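re: the backbone from monday

yeah here it is again, tokenized this time
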């Protein structure tokens, strides 16, 4: 958008303008604010919207909340009592049918993360993040405003905003703009960032309802909070139930015929058919959406970035959405701070899209679409009414497959230009969990000899773990970091007590807890390692 009031003055209202104050936007604001970056959040809604989506929060997401200082508050906002489980279940035919198995057993990968996973509605999470962002002097909140346009030049970027329920209009100026404004992102569209779409030609319904009877029916599945139903008629797509609280409030989504409206379809019968029994239903919300995948072709255009659903959206299968968006925020936040504070190399900001874009592509391809296709093939090939033995054999095999899916989802940046990974590696969501410190992978927690965990000692910037290493190597890293103005914390400890599992004497950890480099060679080149980690080329002028 090119209007006169968006290009005149170069005076800054903030260093970063964030459009969209959902969990991703608020998370990014906290990440930046805690790094002393001044930012403004533009959010149209004064209060979080009461739709219970984005509930499955992974261990990795809870690590973000730990570092943002809100982990305890998020757990306290849980709407299901802590003593009740948050596991999942997959059933065949109906929810109360003969065949079922445990699904999405995230506890299998718990040893590789510092925190436990959690489950609560997105609006509860968002409320906690809003409070935390409001505590930071570096974060300004503009509730009740929406973005109408965005522009940029070689000095900064501008956002034209309008009051949602009034006549006010303002132009905000900053060094960078980040669109966290959802799948219909104004920022993405105005910046001219194109998308690649994959339409599955399915109309989906989202129902939010109250029912005590469904809770009583599901007492046969103790400790379960979400349930997917496979049915031959759905061709691999799910009927999905989820608890919002314990005992009364639920959500449900499933395919419905094209042309379905609130008034021409029996949603109560649809619920009863999926469950396999009748129960009381009091509807609170009925909404619709198209089942499709969308990914921006780049997450950056100059000084304008996008994150969360603005960058990528997909069906709510597997609980990947909000977790992926929050990882975007962690990845982008420290890089923007580095650029604004003068210690980023020329390629650091470009590495955001380079790392996060292929991870979402892999998430969609290797997990969500693959699961839909695998379910479709299973339903076509096996039917207990046709061949019960063959069906049960394959059903039991699927149980182990449900476990391997959790283990295989391990987003990593092996192919990143700012990671010292193996030649020919790629960034992907497909990987394996391990305690070894591997370049491009998330650092696993380990206890230190002090009794504290390594995660409790990691610095806000880079951290060098020296495990039985040479003091001269540590000094060389510290000297190089000081010359480049890179914030660096050094943790020296022995290579025992579990720390030998890192399989390296030196581990350079990024501000987002991913490993930039790991090795044991005392003849290494610390300046070169650090330059690569901040996206500085060998020919680039000295940072700092």
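seq for it, each position gets an aa:
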């Amino acid at each position: 958008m090119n209007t006169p009031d968006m290009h005149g003055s170069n005076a800054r209202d903030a260093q970063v303008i964030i459009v969209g104050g959902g969990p991703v936007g608020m998370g990014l604001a906290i990440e930046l604010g805690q790094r002393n970056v001044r930012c403004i959040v533009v959010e149209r809604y004064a209060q979080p919207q009461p739709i219970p989506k984005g509930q499955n929060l992974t261990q990795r997401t809870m690590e973000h909340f730990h570092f943002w200082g809100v982990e305890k508050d998020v757990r306290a906002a849980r709407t299901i009592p802590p003593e009740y489980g948050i596991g999942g279940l997959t059933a065949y035919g109906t929810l109360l049918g003969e065949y079922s198995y445990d699904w999405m057993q995230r506890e299998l990968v718990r040893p590789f993360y510092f925190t436990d996973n959690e489950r609560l509605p997105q609006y509860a999470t968002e409320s906690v993040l809003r409070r935390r962002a409001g505590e930071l002097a570096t974060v300004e909140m503009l509730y009740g405003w929406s973005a109408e346009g965005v522009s940029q030049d070689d000095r900064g970027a501008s956002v034209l905003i309008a009051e949602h329920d009034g006549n006010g209009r303002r132009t905000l100026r900053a060094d960078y703009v980040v669109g966290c404004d959802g799948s219909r992102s104004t920022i993405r569209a105005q910046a001219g960032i194109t998308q690649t779409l994959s339409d599955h030609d399915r109309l989906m319904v989202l129902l939010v309802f109250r029912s005590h009877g469904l809770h009583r029916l599901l007492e046969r599945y103790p400790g379960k909070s979400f349930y997917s139903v496979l049915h031959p008629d759905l061709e691999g797509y799910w009927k999905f139930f989820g608890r919002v609280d314990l005992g009364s409030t639920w959500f449900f989504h499933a395919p419905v015929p094209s042309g379905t409206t609130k008034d021409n379809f029996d949603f109560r019968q649809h619920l009863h058919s999926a469950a396999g029994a009748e129960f009381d239903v009091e509807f609170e919300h009925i909404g619709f959406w198209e089942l499709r995948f969308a990914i921006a072709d780049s997450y950056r255009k100059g000084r304008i970035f996008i994150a969360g659903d603005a960058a990528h959206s997909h069906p709510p299968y597997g609980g990947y959405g909000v977790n992926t968006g929050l990882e975007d925020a962690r990845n982008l936040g420290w890089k923007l701070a580095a650029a604004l504070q003068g210690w980023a190399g020329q390629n650091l900001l470009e590495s955001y899209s380079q790392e996060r874009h292929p991870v979402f592509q892999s998430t969609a391809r290797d997990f969500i679409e693959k699961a839909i296709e695998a379910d479709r093939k299973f339903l076509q090939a096996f039917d207990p009414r046709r061949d019960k033995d063959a069906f049960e054999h394959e059903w039991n095999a699927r149980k182990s497959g449900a476990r391997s899916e959790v283990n295989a989802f391990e987003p990593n940046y092996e192919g990143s230009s700012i990671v010292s990974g193996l030649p020919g590696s790629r960034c992907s969501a497909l990987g394996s969990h391990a305690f070894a410190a591997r370049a491009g992978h998330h650092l696993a927690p380990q206890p230190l000899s002090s009794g504290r965990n390594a995660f409790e000692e990691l610095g806000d910037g880079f951290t060098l773990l020296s495990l039985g290493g040479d003091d001269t190597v540590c000094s060389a890293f510290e000297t190089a970091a000081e010359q480049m103005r890179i914030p660096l914390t050094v943790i020296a400890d022995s290579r025992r007590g579990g720390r030998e599992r890192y399989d390296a004497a030196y581990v350079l950890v990024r501000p987002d807890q991913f490993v930039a480099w790991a090795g044991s060679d005392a003849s290494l080149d610390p300046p070169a390692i650090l330059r690569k980690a901040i996206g500085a080329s060998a020919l680039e002028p000295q940072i700092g």
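The longest strand covers residues 195-210. The chain has 13 helices and 25 strands.
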